[in-house]
């Protein structure tokens, strides 16, 4: 591991923006979570709930019709807009006044969804967190990186990153390739792993929290929701990524005394967010 800046409690606190006493849900920002396809609506439920539990004032989910009853039942606090199509996203239409959008989880990579993403990116100016299948679609259309707002946050795991930048022989080569893209398009990379690295132009930060309990389905979907929730609360994108990565991992550190590494699931990250926020500010 290179000599990267360590993301510890002191650094996370420096980048964290607490909720003020006279806040109301309109001042806490409105986030949109776009994703889901038949059989993977759970990823949007996880992401949207994590977004709310990170302090966003309002959260709307944009999903295919098949997910409507599921998400309204699973997370009643989340508002829902459905695509015209049943099983996957074919267009992204909304007229919401938003502070942040998180997209890609469970989205699938159907051709119609490629087209929907292209049209969305051409008209969007809202700060973005891009994950999972939206990253996989971008990897197949690399020229679309030009369409991203400045300081968009990408959250690939190593396999998603390989699809985006090609294979690498060493960590140094991986970081050099990521920094090239980061500089070219003003993009923030959250390279999820053990540990997670955050690369933004010349800066490389290394997270100090988390453990193997996080090697469980949906933990990345939850991270996207946390970062999007902090972004919706007017954190700068880099700050939202840094604090989000720190808190996400901290929930695993704090929970394993009870769950062990095996019985920790993505929902436990969401459950542990309260304790993680409190210990950040203690
Ligand atoms: N409950 C749900 O609805 C869930 C939906 N999910 C969605 O399923 C879709 C596919 O996501 P996946 O990540 O599973 O599929 P991917 O095809 O992107 O990744 C799976 C492949 O990548 C490899 N891989 C995964 N993480 C890696 C890492 N950290 N380092 C190296 N190799 C790694 C695996 O070995 C496997 O070969 C995404 O849209 C995701 O959001 C998943 O998050 C799981 C839960
Ligand atoms: N062994 C590990 N140690 C620390 N963090 C881990 C470990 N395994 C996975 N993670 C974290 O779990 C998350 C996995 O993300 P991802 O693969 O996108 O999950 P999913 O797509 O299933 O939601 C990342 O934040 C990653 O850093
Ligand atoms: Mg993922």
Automatic annotation (TrEMBL):
Function of the molecule: Catalyzes the dehydration of the S-form of NAD(P)HX at the expense of ADP, which is converted to AMP. Together with NAD(P)HX epimerase, which catalyzes the epimerization of the S- and R-forms, the enzyme allows the repair of both epimers of NAD(P)HX, a damaged form of NAD(P)H that is a result of enzymatic or heat-dependent hydration.
One Pfam family recorded for the sequence: Carb_kinase
Keywords: ATP-binding, Lyase, NAD, NADP, Nucleotide-binding
Record protein name field: ADP-dependent (S)-NAD(P)H-hydrate dehydratase
The protein's assembly and partners: Homotetramer.
Enzymatic class: lyase
Location of the YjeF C-terminal domain: 8-280
Matching Gene3D superfamilies: 3.40.1190.20
């Amino acid at each position: 591991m290179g000599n990267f800046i360590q993301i510890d409690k002191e650094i996370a606190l420096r980048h964290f923006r607490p909720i003020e006493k006279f806040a109301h849900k309109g001042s806490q920002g409105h986030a949109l979570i776009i994703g889901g396809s038949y059989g993977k609506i759970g990823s949007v439920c996880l992401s949207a709930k994590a977004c709310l539990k990170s302090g966003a004032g309002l959260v709307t989910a944009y999903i295919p019709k098949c997910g409507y009853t599921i998400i309204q039942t699973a997370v009643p606090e989340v508002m829902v807009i459905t695509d015209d199509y049943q099983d996957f996203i074919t267009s992204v239409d909304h007229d919401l006044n938003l502070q942040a959008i998180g997209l890609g989880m469970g989205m699938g990579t159907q051709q119609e969804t490629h087209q929907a993403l292209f049209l969305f990116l051409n008209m969007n100016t809202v700060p973005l967190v891009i994950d999972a299948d939206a990253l996989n679609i971008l990897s197949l259309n690399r020229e679309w990186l030009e369409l991203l707002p400045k300081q968009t946050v990408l959250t690939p795991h190593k396999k998603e990153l390989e699809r985006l930048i090609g294979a690498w022989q060493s960590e140094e080569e991986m970081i050099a390739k990521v920094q090239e893209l980061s500089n070219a398009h003003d993009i923030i990379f959250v390279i999820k792993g053990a540990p997670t690295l955050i690369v933004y132009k010349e800066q490389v930060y290394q997270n100090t929290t988390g453990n193997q309990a996080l090697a469980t389905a949906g933990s990345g979907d939850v991270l996207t929701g946390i970062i999007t929730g902090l972004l919706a609360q007017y954190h700068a994108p880099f700050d939202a990524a840094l604090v989000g990565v720190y808190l996400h991992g901290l929930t695993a550190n704090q929970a394993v005394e009870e769950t062990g590494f095996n019985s920790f699931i993505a929902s436990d990250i969401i459950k542990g967010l309260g304790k993680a926020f409190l210990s950040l500010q203690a």
